[in-house]
């Protein structure tokens, strides 16, 4: 426990700092409600014409959309802005002097940053889409609870692994930013990759049959598609356990790659400022 206390402190400090940005959380919530409504209307139009061809029910698709909007800030589609700034100003030197594992320290801070941005928006979205919509007579368009106790229990580790995998992906982006001092290039490439291949734009089961075997095993699937399908029991039993194993496996692989990349980057790093 003593060994992880500094990393927990780094996580807690960043998490508490980001929770102070209440206006940003409210603005993000309003924006995500707007886009969620648009996506649901598009899906409703599709189901009205081709419901028989859909791989999941409209109710599950609506829940998928609200979950995606609630946890959008948890997706690793924008690099941590503090990393590039720390290298440009020379602040990264303090990270090198701390008697801590640099990767673990950055990972803890990145995870705190992502969860703090997602938590208030997710709470507001659950309240609005899960409770307010049914109260005003729009229950058909509401965010529904998990499909049974088993799905609810399995979603807990799926969410934990989703957050861990997202932080591992973002750490690779952070390392590239630290090496290149340019967030825009990384974000321009990372954003469409994450949004499309995670299933955030469209559930992966809606893609052509020839692409599905690849899409279901690539790392970004563990960010949205796997945990959300576990939530409404499209993945259950052995299939759900295989999904959790895939999330955990890709998390370990990306953390290992991130450690190697960070060691190489730190050996060649030239700090600016100071």
Number of helices: 11
Poorly predicted runs are none
The whole-number mean of residue pLDDT values reads 90
Taken as a percent bin, the fraction of beta residues is under 5%
Q: What is the molecular shape?
A: globular
Oligomer: single chain
Please trace the helix and strand order, writing H or E for each element. Answer: HHHHHHHHHHH
Number of E-state strands = 0
Cα-to-Cα separation, first versus last residue: 34 Å
The biggest sheet amounts to:
none
**Rg on CA atoms, Å:** 20 Å
Helix fraction by DSSP (H/I, runs of at least 4): over 70%
> Which class do the helix and strand fractions yield?
mainly alpha
Describe the structure.
The chain has 274 residues and is mostly helical. Helices cover 71% and strands 0% of the residues. It is globular.
Describe the secondary-structure layout.
Layout: H1 5-18, H2 22-50, H3 58-70, H4 81-89, H5 92-97, H6 102-135, H7 149-180, H8 183-197, H9 212-215, H10 225-231, H11 238-268
Helix pairs in contact: 1-6, 2-3, 2-6, 3-6, 4-7, 6-7, 7-8, 7-10, 7-11
């Amino acid at each position: 426990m003593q060994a992880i206390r500094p990393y927990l402190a780094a996580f807690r400090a960043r998490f508490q700092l980001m929770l102070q940005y209440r206006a940003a959380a409210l603005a993000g919530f309003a924006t995500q409600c707007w886009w969620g409504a648009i996506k649901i209307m598009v899906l409703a139009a599709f189901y009205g014409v081709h419901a028989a061809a859909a791989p999941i029910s409209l109710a599950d698709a609506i829940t998928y959309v609200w979950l995606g909007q609630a946890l959008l800030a948890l997706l690793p589609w924008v690099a941590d802005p503090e990393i590039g700034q720390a290298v440009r100003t020379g602040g990264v030197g303090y990270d090198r002097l701390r008697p801590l594992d640099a990767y673990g320290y950055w990972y803890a801070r990145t995870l705190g940053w992502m969860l703090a941005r997602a938590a208030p928006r997710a709470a507001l979205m659950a309240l609005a889409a899960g409770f307010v919509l049914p109260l005003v007579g729009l229950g058909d368009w509401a965010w529904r609870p998990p499909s049974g106790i088993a799905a609810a229990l399995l979603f807990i580790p799926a969410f934990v692994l989703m957050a861990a995998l997202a932080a591992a992906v973002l750490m690779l982006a952070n390392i590239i930013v630290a090496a290149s001092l340019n967030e825009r290039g990384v974000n321009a490439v990372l954003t469409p990759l994450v949004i499309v291949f995670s299933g955030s734009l469209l559930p992966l089961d809606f893609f052509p049959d020839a692409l599905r075997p690849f899409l279901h095993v690539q790392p970004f699937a563990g960010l949205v598609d796997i945990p959300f399908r576990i939530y409404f029991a499209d993945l259950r039993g052995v299939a759900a356990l295989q999904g959790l194993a895939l999330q955990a496996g890709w998390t370990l692989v990306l953390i290992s790659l991130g450690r190697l990349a960070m060691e190489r980057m730190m050996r060649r790093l030239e700090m600016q400022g100071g």
